[in-house]
Amino acid sequence: MKSYRLVILSFAVLVSAAVHGQLFVPLGLGIETSRNMVGEWYQPQMHVEGDIVYVCTNQGLYSKDLSNDNSVWKLVGFEGVPLQDYVRKGEDILALRHCYYVHSEFLLLSHDGGQTYKDITPAFFKGSGYAFLSLEQHPSDPNTLLTTGCGIFLTTDFGQSWKKLASYKPNYMGYHPMNPEIIYESYGEHFDWKTDLHISYDGGLTWEDKSSFLLGNTEIFRMAFHPTDPNRWIAGGWWCVYTTCDNGQTWGKQFFHEKQTLDDYDYLAPWRYAEYDNENANIVYMAGSYTDYMKLMCSTDGGTTWNRPYLEPIKTTPDEFIFDMKQYRDKLLIYSQSDVYMVSKADLIEQTTSVSEKGLTPVASREDGAIYDLQGRKVNSQSSNSLPTREGQGGSLRKGLYIQNGKKVVKM
User: Fold this and answer.
1) Cα–Cα distance, 298 to 275 (Å, whole number)
2) If we measure between CA atoms, which residue out of 330, 290, 310, 265 comes closest to residue 21?
3) Mean pLDDT throughout 376-401?
4) DSSP labels for 223-277?
5) Average pLDDT of the chain?
6) What is the DSSP letter of 17?
7) The pTM is what?
8) From CA 75, how far away is CA 57, in angstroms rounded?
């Protein structure tokens, strides 16, 4: 019976992909960047500066002029160095080299755009045994940076000196762009698959554990912040989307695979990257990959409901990893293991809405006074002394946790 189900599932995915057609346009980077290097994954990042896209690769920093269809990729700095990420201050670049046990020199400072550089790795970083995964720059002070590896560290002098803010070891972290006193950290690939989210509202002096609000162990990935409403954030998880409407204090969770039916397969992915559209905040994009497909999905109502995802067949190894997603004008840029791809936002919306089958409404957006279970299903409360009952069904539910007005409540 199980093998029969797998055959049908594979057929459904192939039909779905054939209907969609190809949407990912390769930009011809020509460098396959494996995420498995020196015993730990390699997740190089991408930056868009004006019309130029810069990508960290295992061979250095490459760039391409997106405004010129005839432009080619150029090596611009750190030749031969496997780069994880970088930040810029004028001609000064602080680059984060991929490292895990073997390399102890991984903070590289250049004053000429990456042509020459020197190691400025603090002694207490070296030999820590942790991969340093990201550099995050303060929204208004280019000298102030965060990095993460054997903890979360802060520098206010562009990497010359560092102090430890916390002992968490996140894969994702960042400043709130409208209020940089707010810093989040999340562990998106925990060894025991445990959800981990901490938020600081005072620049890293103290931290609040928000993991319990995520209602499960499906993890949470990189955060996106609404461009005009500082209270609204969104992030993907494994087969779900998290939302907050109160600046990270409480969270709702939207499952896409509640029924585990064949029709839900398209939603099955770790949705690692989220982006609010630069021109229209009602449009939200998510990117992830799973089995034989890279996947994109979008919402046209601010994340309340989601169109059926677009599936792009993977052209190299199974389960190709998406490293990053950024925006450029009316396009999405997807950096994966095999290439950098350009995706038309309009075409994505058209192709996903043409087969639109809206997903569930996120728990956090339901503020109608009704009671929901942790899977987002509506229940009724007949009286203050009775247990809630499933809407449309008789009987009672067990005592436990429920959601009301976007917040967790306990029914005794």
Assistant:
1) 9
2) 310
3) 46
4) EEE-SS-TT-EEEEEBTEEEEESSTTSS-EEEES-SS--GGGGGG-SBEEEEEE-
5) 79
6) H
7) 0.79
8) 10
Tokens 């939200």 belong to residue: 284
Closest listed residue to residue 135, CA positions, set 120, 127, 219? 120
Distance CA 118, CA 107 (A): 8
Residue with more model confidence, 61 or 407: 61
Residue tagged 């995050």 (tokens): 136
In whole angstroms, give the CA distance from residue 85 to residue 55.
8
294-327: b or e for each residue (b if 16 or more CB lie within 10 Å)?
A: bbbbbbbebbbbbbbbbbbebeeeeebbbbbbbb
pLDDT single digits (tens) 166-210? 988 888 899 999 999 999 998 755 445 567 899 999 999 999 999
Q: What integer pLDDT is reported at residue 1 of this predicted model? A: 38
Whether the CB-CB separation of 105 and 155 falls below 8 Å is answered with no
pLDDT band at residue 405 under the 50/70/90 scheme: low
Q: Residue 362 is which amino acid?
A: P
DSSP, residue by residue, 125-181:
TTT------EEEE-SS-TT-EEEESSSEEEESSTTSS-EEEE----SEEEEETTEEE
Distance CA 105, CA 119 (A): 6
pLDDT, one tens digit per residue, over 350-372 is: 988 875 444 444 433 444 566 65
* 120 contacts 95 by C-beta, under 8 angstroms: no
CA–CA dist 391, 366 (Å, integer): 15
User: Do 55 and 338 contact (CB within 8 A), yes or no?
Assistant: no
Q: Please compute the mean of the pLDDT values over residues 148-170 and round it to a whole number.
A: 90
pLDDT more than 70, % of the chain = 70
End-to-end CA distance of the chain: give it in Å, rounded.
40
CB burial of residue 37 (10 Å; 0-12, 13-18, 19+): middle
The pLDDT assigned to 128 comes to: 57
Side chain identity at residue 95, one-letter code: A
Contact between residue 332 and residue 348 where contact means Cβ atoms under 8 Å apart: yes
Q: By the 8 A CB rule, do 396 and 373 touch?
A: no
User: Helix or strand or coil: residue 343?
Assistant: strand
**∠ at Cα 42 (51, 116), nearest 5°?**
60
